[in-house]
Every structure is written in C-alpha cells, then in structure tokens.
Amino acid sequence: MSRWLYSSLVNTTGVLALIVVVYFVTYTPWLMNSVSFLLSDSFIQLNTIFLSILIEAVPFVLIGVLTAGFIQMYITEEHIRRWIPKNKYKAIIMSCLVGAVFPACECGIVPIVRRLVKKGVPLYAGVGILLTGPLINPMVILSTYMAFGNHVTMAGLRVGGGFTAALLITLSISTLFKSNQLKGPLADPVHKEAQAGTNRSFSYKARGMMQHSIDEFFDMGKYLIIGAFIAASFQTYIPVKSLYLFGDGLMYSTSVMMGLAYFLSLCSEADAFIGASFSNLFPSVSILAFLIYGPMIDLKNTIMLLSVFKIKFVTVLLLLITAIVFGSIIVTQSLFL
Amino acid sequence: MKFQLTQFLKLILLGAFSSFFFKLHLTGEIAKFINPKYILMSQLAGFLFILLFIIQLGRVWEINAQHHCSAGCNGDHDHSHSRFKKVFGYSVIILPLLTGYGIEPATLNSSIAGNKGLLLPQNEGMSQARQDAFNEVVSDREPLDENEPIPNNNYLSDSEYDRKMELLKEEQIEMSEDVFAVYIEEIQTNPQMYNGKKIKIKGFVYKENGLNSNQFIISRFLINHCVADARVVGMVSEYKDAALYTQDTWVELQGTIRTEEYNGVEIPVIQVEEVETISEPDDPYIFPILVKIV
Predict the structure, then answer these.
(1) CA within 20 to 30 Å of B17's CA: A204, A317, A327, B162, which one?
(2) Which residues on chain A are in Cβ contact (under 8 Å) with B208?
(3) ipTM value
C-alpha cells in the first residue's frame, strides 16, 4: 500500500465526514420541526436545562479524559508504586491531599480515578482523590466565600468538614474492600506494548493519548448525558417546596438538603450559590451538608461511577458517604452549636 | 486495510460536537445557557473537539486489520459490548446534538421559578427554630455599604461599583441589569432604609402561591454558572390591575417602595404607579456582580 494512496484515502474520509456533519446540522432542525407538535413547553424548558448542564460539564470532561489519556500513556505502574506511600494510612492522607490540590469537577474526576486504579493505585487512594478533587479547590472555595456574603466561616467549614469526612470515608473503604472493584478485565495483555513505559517516540505516545481520550469521552459521555437528563427532569417537574412540606427539625432539613444536592447534580463550582439561596429556609448546618455532600456524590456522578466500578462497591460508597456526612453534621450540630 | 464504521461514526460525532459549540458562540445562543463569563471554557471545548476530530481521522482506515486496536487501546472499550449496548450508547450521545440543533433554546419561565424555592418568607409550618434561624440570617447580614464588592465582576471596576452603590441612596432607584441582584439584596436586607423611594424596574411577572390577587413578583433569573443553577430574584409588587398581567409577561414598572409585614417579616413592596408591557429583552438573565481580582 503506497503512502500516497493511504493519505489521500484519509483526506477523502475527512471531507466525507465533514459533508455528513453539514447534512446533519442542516437537516436536524427540519427534522425536529416536523415533530415539534409533540414537544410541550415544559419539555423545551427541560431541554434548555439539560443542554446547559452539558455545555457546562463537557469542557471539564474533555480535560478529564485528556488527563486520563495522559496517565495511560506516560505514567507507568512503576512510577505509581514509587509515589504512593507503602503505609496505608499515609496513602489515605496523601490521596486526600492530592485531590485537594487537584482542580477537578465531579464529572472530570471519574475517568481519571478509573485510570489511576487501573494503573495499580489502591482503591482507597482512588476514592480519596474522587472525594476531595471536586470538593476542595480554589474555584470552589472562592465561590463559597462569595455566595455566603464574603464570610469565611462557611468556606472554612466546607473545606475542613469536607476533608475530615473524606478521610473517614476513605478509611472505611480501605477496610471494606481489598480488590480494585473495577468492572471488566484488569488489563489486556495483547496490547501491553501500547502503554506507558515502552520506548516509543513522543509523537506516537501523544497520538495514543488522544485516541485514548476519544474512547474515554464516548465511554463517559453517555453516562454524563443520561445523568444530566435526569437532573434536568428533576428540576423541571419536581418543585423544591414539595420537599419541605412534611416536616421540620434538623434531621429532616439536613436530609432534604442532601437529597437536593444529590438530585440537582450541580457543578461544585456553582452549588454554593444555590445552597446560599436556601439560607432563609434551613439552618446553616443543613446547608453545610448540602455543600459537602454534593461534590462528593450526586446522581450524574453515580451513573458514571456505575459504568466503571462494580454495583456493590458503588452502592457501599454511596451509603458510606451519605451516612458519614449526615452523621458528622448531626454530631457537629449537637457538639458545637 | 478495513473501513471501521464505528470509528467513522465517532469521527462524525466529534465533528458535530465541535460545530455545535462553535454554533453556540457564533449565534450568541450561548448566553441562553451559561453565564457569558465562562464562555472561554466552552470555546476551548470547541477547539479540543477539532483536535480530537483530526486524531480520530487516522483511525477510520485500520492498516493492520487483525490487530484491530490501535495505540493506547487497553482492551476495555467497546469490543466486549453487545450490539444492542453499542447502538444504545451512540443514540444517547446523539440525543443532545439532536435537541441542541433541533429545538430552539427557551428562556426559563415561571413554571421553573415555582420549582426553585420561594421568595416570600414562609410562616405556616415553620417551627420556632427555623424562624429563629431565618431571623438570625437576616440580622446577620451587614448593610451592603460596608461590604467589599465581591471579587471578580461582571466587568465593573471597583470605583464604578462604588459609584453604582451610591446611586442607591438617591430618591429614584434605577434597576439596571448589572446591579439588579445586589440592589435587590440590599433593599431586602434593609427595607426601612428604602421606604418611600421611587423605583423603576424591568422583569417578568411571577405569581407565587400565597400572594393576593392584586400582587405579583417582578422577577428575573439570576445565573451564576449555567441555567441549571438559575434562581429567581424579585420584589413583590402591588397594583390594582395586577390580575390583568399573566405569568411570564415582561413588564417595566415604576412605583414607590413601601415596607409591609408578611408572615411576621418586614419586606419591601413596590406600590406600582405605572406599568408597561415590554417584549422579552435580548438578555433575559442577570448575572451576579463581581469585581475583577487582578
């Protein structure tokens, strides 16, 4: 096969693909117009919220999958074995700290954690990064500070409380699970040569990293889309006030705020403002629960995690996060306030 | 040498995603979805998709057919999935492209406002504890003048912000888009300071449950990041013909601020003197005021 023939074939394919894209772009409005009588006003509102969640999340997911691709191609199991402390407790603390300095959002962190765990990072260390990555980073701290009227208290409690809760959860996971809990085979020996550590050229590896990111994007993308759609439906059809008609008291308001954090699936950079808008309805500790719980786990995130990890593990993780955040909020309230 | 249909499909989807992000920016529709301050990130997404498109191009024709997995493949992707799962997966990915190109983005309306929580202080069913918490929050807030402007603005400089806050002390308050949210927050925090002042305000009519028939809330959606985190801000307005104005009508009104007791909390109410129906503004949303930190 001559090189010239191959490259002209590829070029033709590219042009062909662009033509298909142009056709798609041109005919979709026409196609959707013909079914527009089926669309209710509320569905159009839902669609707007759905797309806005995606438009907001996709850049972060792309950065996430590129990072995951980078880890795949450039970081070897050898590196990781050297970096992660042998001692379990040191490893737990380190993973939470790494997450805290690593600016990620909850949708971008899942592919990164999956890749790390696949590369031999212990599961609990992966969980540490998963929890603190989206919860503690400069953007989140700044937005929390701003949302609560430029008072440092709430931002401080969010960081401090969140970090403590993350340590507790990671510790529990480390005693409960020994294996990596990933779905599917650990690694495919046939393709070993395509991974980091082999002496391939830089450009070969860069290409591999990109290709890898593409596959990861399509893998993660569908779960992100499903999650965003459910969260948008929730916002469109379920009034928030129906949640606080049935009761009162700290336990109740904390559960409501945590439920909201879960189902609204807001980006951790924006949720502080939503949390703050509830300050005339609920006590501050319940809002703190909202702020800590949401970035650790939410609906969209759970669906993405389910695609990566075994159901049993995701369920246990979800329950653990819920129990520990809820418990520590109640304890904090009765001890200090 | 073999044509890989799945890879070709991915190629097209990457192209379509890229063009979707560019379309949003070129048509300005992006402002219907996210706070324009964050558009840089989504522009970046458009360019990243182009890059991935170019990379993906090389995968459509696999040179080595029996080794149908190229560099970087770890054997954990599509191959093991059943055909049905694959079809389902790609349909899900296409969904936002279909609705994104096919359905015009809407401006949020009162049906969403009703779901987002309440503007009015709630009394019935509110325990003493919650009532206390509420009062505490209200009294905790310092008057805005003493507050520093929030870092990172919708392009207001420090001095301009101060000037705009000075304007609030005048007899006639003009609720322009850039200061809408801060003004409302300030007026609601210290209603007695603004008792008797004239106000001019634009927004849509939102009728929250619990309002009298001569009242509505003149409202705007405040967007921090994207439409999903929108919340309603607004002021209760009283007008004899309030019933004539239906939900979601855009109006501009002039009136006087009076404080009234509502469920035991003092709130500012606009006594409307003049109402004019207007068409929906080009920028229906308002964004929080932030002063650049540089």
Answers:
(1) A204
(2) none
(3) 0.77
